Known about the structure:
Chain A is mainly alpha-helical. Chain A has helices spanning 18-23, 28-58, 66-70, 83-119, 127-146, 177-206, 219-250, 275-309, 316-329, 345-357, 359-373, 382-404, 407-413, 417-447, 453-479, 499-529; strands at 262-263, 266-267.
Amino acid sequence: MSVxxxxxxxxxxxxxxxxxxxxxxxxxKIIGLQxxxxxxxxxxxxxxxxxxxxxxxxxxxxxWGLVRWLFPGxxxxxxxxKPDFYLAVVTMHGTIMIFFVLTTALSxxxxxxxxxxxxxARDMAFPFLNMLSYWLYPPAIVVLLxxxxxxxxxxxSGWTAYPPLSALAQAAPGSxxxxxxxxxxxxxLIVAFLFGSLNYITTVLQLRTRxxxxxRLPLVTWAQFITAVLMLLSFPVLxxxxxxxxxxxxxxxxxxxxSGLVVGGQLVxxxxxxxxxxxxxxxxxxxxxxxxxxxxxxxxxxxxxxVHGRKPIFGYRAMVLSMGAIAFLSFVVWGHHMFxxxxxxxxxxxxxxxxxxxxxxxxxxxxxxxxxxxRARIRFTCxxxxxxxxxxxxxxxGLTGLFLGSPAVDTYFQDTFFVVAHFHFVMASAALFGLxxxxxxxxPKMFGxxxxxxxxxxxxxLTFVGIYATFFPMxxxxxxxxxxxxxxxxxxxxxxxxxxxxxxxxxAAFGLGLAQLVFVANVIYSLVRGPRAARNPWRANTLExxxxxxxxxxxxGPQLPVVYRWPYDYSVPDAAEDYIPQTAPAAVPAVAGGAxxxxxxxxxxx
Amino acid sequence: MSRxxxxxxxxxxxxxxxxxxxxxxGPHDGETxxxxxxxxxxxxxxVVAAVVVLFAAFTSTYLARRAEPDWAPVAMPRIxxxxxxxxxxxxxxxxxxxxxGRRGDRAGLRRGLAATAALGALFLTCQxxxxxxxxxxxxxxxxxxxxxxxxxxxxTHGLHLAGGLxxxxxxxxxxxxxxxxxxxxxxxAATYWHALAGLWLYVFVILFGx
Lengths: 606, 210
C-alpha cells in the first residue's frame, strides 16, 4: 500500500504545472469536478439514448430521415430503427445512467469534493489512489462506448446482463464482442469505485479535524461514508460475477450456461451451469447499488433542507441510524428482483419481509425531512426546490416499491412498465434531483460563482413537470401489461390501445430532455458571467463554507479549522445571526436543541 | 476495525481554545500533537474486507454450482499440501518479524520480512507447479466445473498474494527507516498477508475438504 503525501503546510507555496493541476491532479476537489463533469457528459449520452428509446416506443416502425444518418447501422435503409439496435440502446442507457452517471457523479463527484472539505481535512488519505480512481473512469467509458462500433454492436442483454443472452456470443447480435467490452468496462469501473470507497472510508475515519466527532459530521458526509461502505462490500461481488461470465464466454467454462441449450439450431457445448447464479450475484450488488445512488442524494437533501430552511435538521441521530439501517437491509433484499425465477415461496416471503422493512427507515427519513420543513423559514432557492422535489419523487417512487416488494403482486408486475416507472421515480429521478440540488447548492463553492436563479427555476419547473409527465403514465402502461424492453409491444393486440399514451410519454420525455439544455446554458452562463460567490453565500454552518470559494489547494490556510458544534445550529434563539458555523467556539452562544450533539459539553448557555 | 474507537473518543475532550489549537490529525503534515494512526493501518482492513467479499461471492457460487448433476471432483495435486505448509510458515515468520520490530530490533524485522517474502515466492511456485501437474494430467480450466473453480480460486488468490508480496517488498525497502515508520509499512502488509494465509486455508478446504 503506497501512501502519497499531498499534504501541504503552505498552500500558497503550492505550484504545479497545468497538467498536474487540472488533468493528473491529486487534489480531491479537482478529482471531484473531473468526476462530475465527465458524468454530466455521460448523462448527455445516456439522455440521447433515452430519446431513441422513446422514438421507437412512441412511433414504432416510423421512418426517421435525419436520425438515421447520426446512427449508421442502427437503422434500416428506409430509416426504421433495427430491433437489435433498440435493445443495445436500452442496455446502454441503463448501464450508462446507473454506473457511469449517477454513481460517478454522486459518489465520485460529490464524495470527492465534499468529504475532505466537510471534515476539515486538506485532502483524501491516499491522493494518488484517488487520482488513479478517476483515471480508470475515462478508459472504462471508452471501452463501453466502443461496443457501439464493433461487429454486432452494443450488448442486447440489458443493464442486468442475464446469461445465457450475455454468455453466448451467438445468442444475439450484441452478445459478441460488444458484450465482452461491456463486461471489461464494468470491471475497470468497479476497480475505480473500490479505490474511491477505500479512500472515503479511511479519510472519514482518520482525517477529521480536531473537534469533528462522528456525531458532528454533516449528514451529507455521513451519507457518503455509508455509501462507500456499501460500495466496498457489494462491488467485489459484481466483479466476481463479471470474471466468471468472461470465463464462460472466452475460456469455455460453464458457470452460468445450462446444459442442452440450442441457439440458432446448434447445440451449445457448455454444460451444467446455472443462469440463476448470475442473477443472485448481480442483484447482491444490484440492490445495494440502488442505495449507492440514493443515499448520497439523501445526504445532499438533508443538508439543503436545513440550510435553505434555516432550521436544524429534524432527528439528526435518526437520520444517521436510518441510513445505516437502509444500508444494512440493502444486503438482504436482493431476492425481490427474482420473485418470478421459481424461488421457493418461503424464500420469497423472507425477501418480502426484509424488502418491506426498508420502508421503515425510508419513512423515518421522509418524515424527518417534512418535520424539518415544518414552519421553516424556507428560501425557495433552486437548490431548495430540487431538494423538495427529491422528497416528492422519493415518496412517489417509494410507494410503488411496496407493490413490487410483494411476491404475489410482483408476479404480475415483473418486467412491465410499472417497474420502469417505479425505479425511474425512486432511483433515477430522485437521484437526479439530489444531484441538481447539490449542484445548485455547491456550485458557488466549486467554481467561485453563483448560478443564475431565474434560469435555475425555469429548469426546475420544466424538469419537475417533465418527470411526472414522462414517468407517471408508465404506471398505467405497466398496469395494462406492457412489458419493458420490447422492441414492438404493439405486435400484441391487447397493447395496441396503449399507443396514444406511449406517444404522450415520448413527447414528455423529449420535453424533459430539452429542458436540460436550460441547465447546460445556466452552467455555461454562470461560469462566465455569474456574480462572484462569497465564502458563505447561503450562510451555512458546515466547514466547506468557511474556506474560500473555490478553496485553494490544501483547502485551509496554515491552520486547520477546529470544530466546536454540530452542523445544524440554525435559527438558534438569542443568537446574533440565524446560523452558527461549526467553527464558532462553544462558549459564545447557546446550542439549538443540543440534544442532538452529545459530544458537546452543555454546561454553558442554558 | 479495531482502531476506530480511538478516533471516536477524541472529541469528547473539550477542544482547546482556538489560539492554542494545533489543528487536525492528518498524517505526516506536522499538524498533529500525538502520533496518529497511519491511514494504511485502517485502509488495509478495508482491502481485506473487499477481498473477503470477492471470495465469498466466488465460493458461494461454487457451493451452489456443486449441487448441479454434472459435478465431478478433480484429484487434488499433492503439492498443495506443501503450499499450505509454506504459507503457514510464512505467517509465522511474519509474526516473528513484527514482534522483533516492535521490540525495536530492526535487523530482526528485516530478516523476518525477507524470509516471509521468500516463502511467499515459494508458495506461488508451488501453486504454479500444482497447475502444471493438473495440466499434465489433462485437467484444464474448461475440463470440468470443479477444475474451473480450482483455477479461478487459486488464480485469484495467487494474484492477491502477489500483491501482498509487493507490499512485503515495500515494507522491506522501508525497514531502514526509524522503526515506527518501518512498522507503518510492515504492519498493514502483515495484516493483509495473514488474511490471505487464512483465505488460502478457506479455499483449500472449500475446494478439496468438503
